[in-house]
Amino acid sequence: MWEYAPAPESRDIANLKPDYRMFVDGQFVEGGGEPLKTINPGTEEVLAEVSTAAPADVDKAVKAARRAYDRVWGRMPGSERAKYIFRIARLVQERSRELAVLESLDNGKPIKESRDVDVPTAAAHFFYHAGWADKLGHAGYGPDPKPLGVAGQVIPWNFPLLMAAWKIAPALACGNTVVLKPAETTPLSALVLAEIIQQADLPPGVVNILPGAGDVGAAVVSHPDVDKVAFTGSTDVGKVIQRQLAGTGKKLTLELGGKAANIVFDDAPLDQAVEGIVNGIFFNQGHVCCAGSRLLVQESVAEELLEKLRVRVSTLRVGDPLDKNTDIGAINSREQLTRIEELTASGEAEGAQRWTSSCPLPDKGFYFAPTVFSNVSQAMRIAREEIFGPVLSVLTFRTPDEAVAKANNTPYGLSAGIWTEKGSRILWAAQKMRAGVVWANTFNRFDPTAPFGGYQESGFGREGGRTGLEAYLDV
């Protein structure tokens, strides 16, 4: 037997500062809210103190965004806007190592995911949307589509930098200005992105970033001078926002929770499927709204697949997020870890068979070993509720019709996966799945050129691709 030697990335690369301030009208300023301490979930140590916004600060930021829209950004030719967005993209690339280490410190995700997925994809979103800035008349929304104005954006803690890019890049490309509220537990990479925006000489007020808790997000969403709201987060909060904005005339997109089905048919390449299943549920500790958290396996191959899956999961390494050998990092917060523990306990209490990897866990920090439940019924909470952690529920089916019926038996509809060697079966199943994204013989593949979004309680509207531009245009 051989063992992996630790290969930690240096935390000094993150250039961590003792305190961070909010970004309003092109400047870093003190907020009037109660400062928050952001915590490293891998060690439970305080990383930095962050200034937060008060209601008056939200008003200042929205006024700055409105002024920048009216006087500069909304009037600027698309070819000029593109130059700024391209500059941001290049600076994200130049500071990619710093951003990756900072993201892993603040969020808890493995450095190899921050380095190889989050930061490159964030840069790709800026590059892609910069290319659209002077071509909006060819996007299919009329010969001269207009921006909406000020966009209020609220993002979650699972992909802090990537979600910021996902929101800011299309808004800027379409000529809108932005007031963005990062998640309370992960504000640091968004504030370093603000440094990059300042470094790129973006006109003051075009992008404003306000750290804080849910009350700051609510103030941004409800501000009367915000023209468009984009929210990614929990379904419960999404419902509150939708009720709040009903009748206001504000344009709204919601990207909410999910309980994705990953369907494995009896003719699927099982070894390949196992890799896709592992990526689908254990990537980013399962903190993924489109995670493949429900595995539907055809009965004739269920036992063989489960055996292969347990062997593969037992090789996953849980530990220090900055170690390049780590496969599963830290759960983002104590609160989220408690929810995962409560839902897994309910799975055992309701009669599902639990298998948890015997991998060692660090003594300090918020960690949870990868867990697989078999003998799961559709009535169990672990099959119905979004766990948002490294927990997989396995159900079986006999016929393709039964597989689709079980996959669609959920209030969510964000994503799905299909594993089979038959192309006709892929097309048949994909047409019947009520999911915004359906992957075939792969999972968790993202590209800024492809639209992403859901149905039902997973929200509405699309982000990314030509389709995603519509959310930021007056069409």
From TrEMBL:
Residues 29-474 form the Aldehyde dehydrogenase domain. GO terms for molecular function: aldehyde dehydrogenase (NAD+) activity. The active site is at 255. It comes from the Bacteria. Keywords: Oxidoreductase. The keyword Oxidoreductase applies. Its EC number is 1.2.1.3. The keyword Acetylation does not apply. Belongs to the aldehyde dehydrogenase family. PANTHER family: ALDEHYDE DEHYDROGENASE-RELATED (PTHR11699). This is Aldehyde dehydrogenase (NAD+).
